[in-house]
Amino acid sequence: MRLRRAARVILIGAPGVGKGTQSKRLLTRFPQLSAISSGDLLRHNVKTRTPLGIKVENTMKTGGLVSDDLILRLITNELGRRGWLYGGRPNFMTLSSSSEADTFGSALEADPLAGASLSPQASEDPAASFLLDGFPRTAAQAQRLDDIVPVNWVVSLQTPFDVIMERISSRWVHEPSGRVYNTAFNAPKVPGFDDVTGEPLVQRADDTEEVYRARFQKFQETSQPLLEHYAKKGVLWEVHGMSSDEISPKLYQEFENRFL
Ligand code: AMP
After folding, report:
1. Per-residue confidence (pLDDT) for residue 2, from 0 to 100
2. In the prediction, which pLDDT does 1 show?
3. What is 170-202 written as a DSSP string?
4. 129 near 3, Cβ under 8 Å?
5. What is the pLDDT of residue 148?
6. What's the domain count of the chain?
7. 4 C-alpha to center of ligand 1: Å?
8. 139-148 and 209-233 helices cross at what angle (nearest 10)?
9. Residue 43 CA, ligand 1 centroid: distance in Å
10. Which of 23, 31, 106, 180 has the most CB atoms around its CB within 10 Å?
11. pLDDT below 50 — which residues of the chain?
């Protein structure tokens, strides 16, 4: 199915709500969409030892947030690399440059040439359609992204807390292989044992109600300003459902209405 206009999409949802599942399904159904993950881009930079990678390595290891400047630069650079931005200075962000000043100097902010008319702008070509994953994480990041590539659809995935909790607490894993079962809809043939090896299944230490409740609360707090930011822009859309299968058709329909 071909898109009529560029889709610049973000999915927001609590841990365990099925964000990954919905992303995968959207990418399969609409091949013009591609995923851009800030975490993957950062990990790639760490692995290939770019100056940016070296700089963010410790922050990532300790679970902290990388600075907004670096993240913005990373995302803008990636969009530019794909040819999805026009205007701005050529090579406006050289993440792989060996020169510290080149890479980390505020090329966009401080450069007198990087005025408003030279800021990169998003391409409206439907081929420049993407689903952002892991970014923006804060309202401040969203604000800055708006200046470059205004996101035009933000989906808030809503499933009741108890339903997600139920799903998580019925999850069992076979640790050596990573196979995951769910006693509610994907039960092992013999309760408590892996189908392939017959070895015992375990529950993950963080699949407890206490741990999940804390993660859920943290998500509520951090996502609220982000949702409000996009609500004000008029691009927020909420979808409710008890399962991924209930949510997907609604998501497809709305996506088609907006972009096809
Ligand atoms: P993720 O794969 O999305 O969980 O990201 C892995 C790590 O990369 C996070 O723990 C952060 O350290 C960093 N990171 C990813 N996205 C962002 C972002 N939007 N803002 C700040 N740090 C980020």
Report:
1. 86
2. 77
3. TEEEETTTTEEEETTTB--SSTTB-TTT-PBPB
4. yes
5. 87
6. 1
7. 31
8. 40
9. 9
10. 23
11. 90-117
